[in-house]
Amino acid sequence: MTTLTQPPQESFRLSQLLYDTRYRSLTIQVVAFILLMAFFWWLIANTVANLEALGKDFDFGFLGQRAGYDINQTLIPYTSGATHARAALVGILNTLLVAFMGCILATVIGVIAGVLRLSKNWLVARLMTIYVEGFRNVPLLLWIIAIFALMTESTPQPRDFREGGGASLLFDWVAITNRGVYVPAPNWGDGAGVMIAVFVASLVGIWAWRRFARQRLESRGQLLPVMRVSLALFFIPTLIVYFAFAAITGGREQAIVAAGATEQSSLADFAQSQSGLNVCLIPGSAASLNLERRLMADDLNYNAVPFTDEQGALAGFQSGDCNVVSLPSADAGPYIANGGFEGQPAVLSDTILRGNPVEFERPVLGGFNFEGGIHLRNSLIALWLALSLYTGAFIAEIVRSGILSVNKGQSEAAFALGLRPNRVMNLVILPQALRVIVPPLISQYLNLTKNSSLAIAVGYMDVRSTLGGISINQTGRELEGMLLMALFYLLLSLLISGLLNIYNASIKLKER
Amino acid sequence: MSDTHAQTVRFVRDSMIEPQEPPISETGVIRWVRENLFSGWLNILLTVVSLAVIYFALSHLLPWFLQMVWNAGSLSECREIRNERYGPDAASACFAVIRERWHQLLFGFYPVEAYWRAVLGFVVFLAGMSPVLFTSLPRKLLWASAATPFVCYALFWGGSIWGPVATALGFAIGAGAYSLGFRAGGKLAASIAAIVVPILYWLFLAGPLARALTGIAPIGLPFIPSDDFGGFMLSTIIGLSAILLSLPLGILLALGRQSHLFIINKVSIGFIEIIRGVPLIVWLFTASLLLNYFLPPGTNFDLMLRVIIMATLFSSAYIAEVVRGGLAALPSGQYEGADSLGLDYWQSMRLIILPQALKISIPGIVNTFIGLFKDTTLVVFIGLLDPIGLSNSIRATTEWNGIYWELFVFIGVLFFICCFSMSRYSIYLERKLQRENR
Amino acid sequence: MTKSLFLGALTAVGLTAGAAGAATLDDVQARGHLNCGVNTGLVGFAAPDSNGTWEGFDVGVCRAVAAAVLGDPMAVEFVTTTGQTRFTALASGEVDMLARNTTWTFTRDNDLKFEFTGVNYYDGQGFMIPKELGVTSAKDLDGATVCIQTGTTTELNLADFFRVNNISYEPVPIETNAEAQQQYLAGACDVYTTDASGLAATRATFENPQEHVILPEIISKEPLGPLVRHGDNEWGDIVRWTLNALVAAEEYGITSANIDELAQGTNNPEINRILGTEGNLGEMIGLESDWAVNAIKAGGNYGELFERYIGESTPVGLSRGLNAQWTNGGLLYAPPFR
After folding, report:
1. What is the per-residue DSSP string for A361-394?
2. Taking every annotated instance into account, which residue ranges of this chain make up the domain ABC transmembrane type-1 (chain A) (predicted)?
3. B377 vs A contacts (CB less than 8 Å)
4. How far out from the chain centre does Cα A160 lie?
5. B426 CB contacts (<8 Å, ≥6 apart)?
6. Distance (Å) from the C-alpha of residue A486 to the closest C-alpha of chain B?
7. pLDDT 10s per residue in chain B (438 long)?
8. Residues 138-197 of A with CB under 8 A from C
9. Chain A residues with CB-CB distance to C91 below 8 A
10. How are beta strands A277-281 and C34-39 bridged, if at all?
11. CB C148 within 8 A of CB C177
12. Which pTM does this prediction carry?
């Protein structure tokens, strides 16, 4: 019999912390942790001492102070009287906008260039090589500056659009100037809500149809037309609603009411009798757009007094903020009957149309610039293009290597099965290539987002230019401002990589 | 028989036909053009569009480029010469600015009489790095590589040579402390001694020693302050030193990220993600605006060094990810093999894992370097005179105010040459690795 | 192997760099050169020539201070700073003084803790606009697109001006003067606004300067001057009185041409006190007695500097205007050297 030797009852010795592998890792970690904390303590102590020496404090109160500077592109209302926090928010939204647009365009450019680089067409393949190598090997900053300058120098300035200036509107609707591109802005009339709801519903319908078609394909091997049905779903319901509303309410006329006018006089006569026209408008509504068109057709100068809804406009008219307003007759009637405020309101002989569910406002050349429409500023476009082209060059390489990574036998086998070339691409090559493409693609999106901080080179007011630029400069709060900005970028990066990692996990090859 | 045959076959050739040329469209250039450019409607469309793009670009660029003016003292002289030669409104490049200022774009305000030092420094650097970059060279030369940074420092900045010598001595002292400690108290004591002793030496002894030696034998080149560095030289030095310094840090971070030790692992991940999640320009502003807050009151060193530190930290996070990829690419058999030999962690890393992992990572490291080198242009935002910053300064002189594209074209071409050749090198490496792994 | 470069640099550079301590004068003298923060490039005020030597009106002030303190106008290291980094560079001690057309404002003086040592150029913010637009007053700029350099007080002035006059505008912020110039010339903005001196300098380099007008409105006061850190009054005094010496020299007719002669002694006691042949003013601010002689010799008196770099004979072509001596109806008024 073997005697079971009892393991010696070990008492814990201090030296075990170093020499026993069970404890050593713990020791190392504790030491590392202590060192790390000591390092942070050292940094913070230094910072406190330095701040004290400079007579500064660590205070985010500056965010509540008046910013005092103007920002050209604001996605939310902002004036120079707003706070630094608001300016930072405007900058954050601008960063998000350009990063989002950039990621989309860069993907499109990258995929096209990557595929074309593999094209059998010698010329195109060479051209794409030049594009990819040119953008990859020259600093982004240089490209941003160059594209910005190129855009301002190669496009006409607004004053060239005047008579004899040599420039003209694209399709009569879009103005491409060196201050940016002016595109028509949608103005919403009655039924716009319904129309948008129907449009969203049809998007859901498209998604459902695709799902259904896929299930059919998998369960019964039945090929249903996806593209045609999707297109039909995309356009037809929305258009039906549009035309229905246009037929019902679009042609409806509504009265123009003016304070202190003679009954049934025309708009032009009224304008002559008054020292100035103040018009209560609801920016973005079709009726107001038609009223403005009416005013412009008569060549009248007027001040626009903006309101958010018809009740507000009516109240403004009542309190004398403006002397012209246009209302549906159902609303206008009682008001005129009641009167009771200064300048007896009267209905003019001119009427305007109530307007279709959506009408587009055309950019018109004003004093210095185009007015009306949506103004896509040059800084945005230049930054957007530069970021997309630069990142697109990297994505092109990723796409190319992704496609090349798919074994040639795969496509040959697919062809042997009699699949058409686009189906080979969609069903065989791309799903396999995507697994190689997506992870580096994510890091390119992250790069693009971070590179958007070069916006200052073209004067695009992103968060680096507002919070990290002018705000810091005006208040001298570099520590606080930089910290906030770094936090923002960090969160954004983590968010993007988190979201895309989830996507990546969903398309990953399921290994057992 | 023959009759029936004659009835069924209507035609029988009775003489051989002459050999013919192959169809004209199936040979040479025309065939190539047909196959490569016009093989289908899509292809034809692409070709036409490409030709249009090429024509558009060339028709705008070529006249500007060909009608260049090389000899002029200022932009207005350039314009006069252009008016004389090509008439007003002609597109004409005024490359005279490059002729007059190329040396500033390359070297900044580095003294002209010291240009040889800068050039020699880069040559020494390349020569020193060649044993690392080209594995066919004898391994003994790696010792020369180790000395390169000190030689380069002495060449670029100058000053007494005893400063770099005293600093380099720290490593010898570290090695000495390790072997002494090994004999005295085993491996752990040796490692601690190898870290602590040189740091103490650098903190307290190196400075006085260097000064004392300088007092005894003042050998050295004239000192050139960092403010005089500029242009491509600045970009290159920042890029190169950051990538070199970040290598050890990046390797440690990569190992840390793979480590099973909870705290080490989390700290490494945190560091890498924070650095990578924030744009370089924010880090540069941190270097320029904030670093002074974090250091003991009264410390202050020049901006270029601060930028190098920040760029080092920045690229170390990226290098860590590259090296991690290299580590992950090794088959697990290598790790298990090392363990089965009884090697401890550091031995297995040093002898088995890292040599293989680093070899795989070199193309990635080169690509990281290209990225960093391009990103050095961002230092213009904190007032350092990189090529773009210098182009602003050059335009601020009364002679060259208003000149625009010529400077950017020059800078862009130089960057392209550098980055393109490096990326070719990295592709060459990748191909070589692929061949070796086959 | 690789850490060494860092540490080598640390030992060499770190040791030579001075601390942002109290006695800047001692630091400068020990170091043997003055660290002066300048613009990365502004026509007429600071720009490197083809030999890499910095020249310009602001640079002249740096050289004068270096000459006064060290006796050598070339003993200056120019540290280029951007609008955003300039104050940190000064606060951290990276530069001893900042001569970078910085506007003297209340907050910069008190909140950011700097000391403005005087005004070397009285400027104001103006507007430049192409003649063909036919605008004669800034009040007609409703709806105009305005190019503006970011990171300066001009942004705030512009916002205030348009707000006060209740007219709208579209700001196009631009990082550098060169970009702004390019944008303006291409017509991407109707108006370019910056300090009037900058506008004149920019217009002077246009191919057709006569096609652009500078509007009469000056919408702000921009007293530009050198500044130093709060709390080192001795050093502040040196910079302030060097600047005053340049101004006074012009007033009393001391030029770089006749200074050697005048330094032998004159019968004007004020001149003698400035030039150190009488009294001990130099000693009082801790400098040699011939400090002012060196400062004036460095680039001449205020008027000579002005004429050489930004005056009417240069392409910049600025007239003296507000920057004339008080005796000629300007604002330059050096306190007495007594």
Report:
1. EPPEE-SSSEESSEEEEHHHHHHHHHHHHHHHHH
2. 92-500
3. 139, 141-142
4. 30
5. B362, B363, B366, B367, B370
6. 6
7. 445 555 566 677 788 888 887 666 566 777 777 777 777 788 888 888 889 999 998 988 888 888 888 888 888 888 888 888 888 778 888 888 888 888 888 888 888 888 888 899 889 888 888 877 776 777 777 788 888 888 888 888 888 888 888 888 888 888 888 888 878 777 777 777 888 888 888 888 888 888 888 888 778 788 888 888 888 999 999 988 888 888 889 999 999 988 888 888 888 999 999 998 899 999 998 888 888 888 887 776 778 888 998 999 999 999 999 998 888 888 888 888 988 988 888 888 888 888 888 888 888 888 888 999 999 999 888 888 889 888 888 888 878 887 888 899 999 999 999 999 988 888 888 888 777 654
8. 145, 148-149, 152-153, 157-160, 178-179
9. 54
10. unpaired
11. no
12. 0.86
Is residue C78 located within the same domain as residue C140?
A: no
Q: What is the pLDDT of residue A2?
A: 53
* Contact list, A46 vs chain B (CB under 8 Å): 293-297
Contacts across the B-C interface (CB distance below 8 Å): 189
Interface predicted TM-score (ipTM) of this complex, two decimals: 0.85
Shortest CB distance from C145 goes to which of A80, A369, A474? A369
Cα separation, B77 vs B94, in Å, equals 10
Q: Are C100 and C151 in contact (CB under 8 A)?
A: no
Determine whether the interchain pair C82/B383 forms a contact, defined as Cβ–Cβ distance below 8 Å.
yes
Restricting to B residues 179-198, those with a Cβ less than 8 Å away from any Cβ of A are 188
A66–C contact, CB cutoff 8 A: no
Cα gap B182→B171, rounded to integer Å: 16
* More reliable by pLDDT, C254 or A159: C254
Q: For A511, what's the count of Cα atoms within 13 Å in the CB-facing half-sphere?
A: 3
A178–C160 C-beta distance less than 8 A? no
Cross-strand bridge partners of residue A175: A182
Assess whether pLDDT exceeds 70 at residue A409: yes
Provide the pLDDT for residue C6: 42
**Is B56 within 8 Å of chain A by CB?**
no
d(CA B121, CA B156): 6
pLDDT of residue B1: 47
For A95, A165, B79, the CA distances from B90, given in Å and listed in that order, are: 40, 21, 10
Contact check, Cβ <8 Å, B278/A486:
yes
Q: Which chain B residues are closer than 8 Å to C50 by Cβ?
A: 100-101, 104
Q: What value does the mean pLDDT of chain A take? A: 82
- Which residues 143-162 in chain B show a CB within 8 A of chain A? none
Select the residue from B92, B302, B377, B384 to test the C interface by mutation, using most C Cβ atoms within 10 A.
B302
Is the domain of C243 the same as that of C294? yes
Q: Which residues form the domain of C131?
A: 124-222
Digit-coded pLDDT (tens) for C162-218: 888 888 888 888 877 778 888 888 888 889 998 888 888 788 778 788 889 888 888
What is the mean predicted confidence (pLDDT) over A2-22?
A: 64
Q: What is the Cβ-side half-sphere exposure of residue A56, based on CA atoms within 13 angstroms?
A: 24
User: Domain ranges in chain B?
Assistant: 28-100, 103-110+226-436, 160-221
Same domain, A305 and A328: yes
In CATH, what class is B103-110+226-436? mainly alpha
Helices and strands per DSSP (H, E), number in chain C: 15, 13
> What CATH number does the domain containing C150 carry?
3.40.190.10
Strands (E), A214-276: 253-259
Last residue of a domain, one of C167, C189, C222: C222
A489 with B280: Cβ contact below 8 A: no
pLDDT at C5 (0 to 100): 40
Closest residue, chain C, to B204 (C-alpha): C11
Please list every residue in chain B whose beta carbon sits closer than 8 Å to the beta carbon of residue C212: none
Instruction: Give the chains touching B; criterion: ≥3 Cβ pairs < 8 Å.
Output: A, C
Is A149–C159 a contact, with Cβ atoms under 8 angstroms apart? Answer: no
Q: B227 and C315 in contact by Cβ < 8 A?
A: no
Residue A321: what pLDDT? 73
